[in-house]
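Holo prediction. Input below; ligand is FE2/S2 (inorganic) cluster.
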Amino acid sequence: MPAITVNGVRHELTAFPDTPLLYFLRNDLALTGPQFGCGLAQCGACAVLIDGKEERACITPVGTLDGKDVTTLEGLPNRWANQKHIPADERHELLHPVQQAWITHQTPQCGFCQNGMLIKATELLESNPSPTPAEIKSAFTTSGLSPMLCRCGTYKAIFEAVQHAATLMAQRS
Ligand code: FES
Ligand code: FES
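Structure of the complex:
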């Protein structure tokens, strides 16, 4: 039976292989962080990490994911805790540094896009712990094949929060 790991828990894939990962996460696992925006890989609201890479769950069939490791917004604190070997007694109400920075900078407005923004920030900072302003702007592009769209225009706060998150992550390394 094909299976995937979602936020550290293994799940056998009983859904039809062409079922979008987003439906599996929201309907079968009740993980409602990833949002349905465009359904066409054109907004980023549904983003998750698959083997550490930001991917669009709305167009990713579960049948392509056997053996893959998926992290959703809900799994970010444990992802961080496991990466940094944070002891169990410090994990209660732990947030990932990107989540902490998002709160500090009061980044969301309506909030609909922010799942994708947090996932994109995590991907960026795991691969590039000290991104330049140009690199941050490029990660949150509004054009090209994989845009990250925010209709509320929170980009300035996102850029500031990413820089803050980079500082928080460096403090723990
Ligand atoms: S809902 Fe998946 S990219 Fe828009
Ligand atoms: S905060 Fe409203 S769409 Fe981004």
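The mean pLDDT is 97. That is the main takeaway for now.
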